[in-house]
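Worked example

This section walks through a single chain of length 245. The input is the sequence exactly as stored; nothing has been trimmed or padded.
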Amino acid sequence: MKISHNHGLRSAAFTLAEVLVTLGIIGVVSAMTVPTLMQNYQRQSYVTQLHKVYNELTQAFLQFKNDRNAIWLSEAGHVRHQDMMPFMKQYFKVVQDCGKTSTPCFASSYKNLSGSTFELTTKDEDATYYGVLASGASFGIKSDGIDTGTNYTDDFLYRIAIDVNGQKGPNIYGRDLFILYIFSDGVVDAYRVNPDCRENNNCTLGANPSEHREKLYESCASSTGNTWYDGCFAKILNDNWQMNY
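Given that input, the structure is written out below as tokens.
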């Protein structure tokens, strides 16, 4: 007696219509999820590049103080914007020096998170020095121009703009462009997160450094120009080096 298995095979097989429906569903799901995954990956790559520059700056200022047996950068003779380019060239590999002009080290224009366009310039343009690191990151650094002797409570010693991938896109503040602040103890943080804020919770915008940074982020998220764009880096610090915005 010959046993036929055709009935079982027919039961287990998919029809062409079922296969097409399944592939269609997979395609729709992929179309919905892949762009988000790629976007998250790209954003995190910007954060990784930013973290690298942050670590290098932190180590460089620590080494600068140790080389001079100093506690404060100002004590070690680091108080003027003229001091910064020699410092950068001593402790970093600077492959391009743009002097006091942002281009071509930086892109000619940037956008903020709301899509408004602005130029990377300040009223103190003549006190800012621009360059490009070997990693491809661009930097523009300036002093606050004030030497009050109050290292503990100064708003900041230097402000530094970092474009993690130079002139390459997207050239959006909060994505690949960030503003960092350097304080006289050599710590790199957000605006006004000075030693007094960090150690004694005497912060101007909150009860502690975390609240202060979160308040700064509001300016980043709602900015319509380049007047206040300090808070995106603050948010990344608060969120443990994640771009959750």
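What to look for: Residues 46 and 99 are 25 Å apart (CA to CA).
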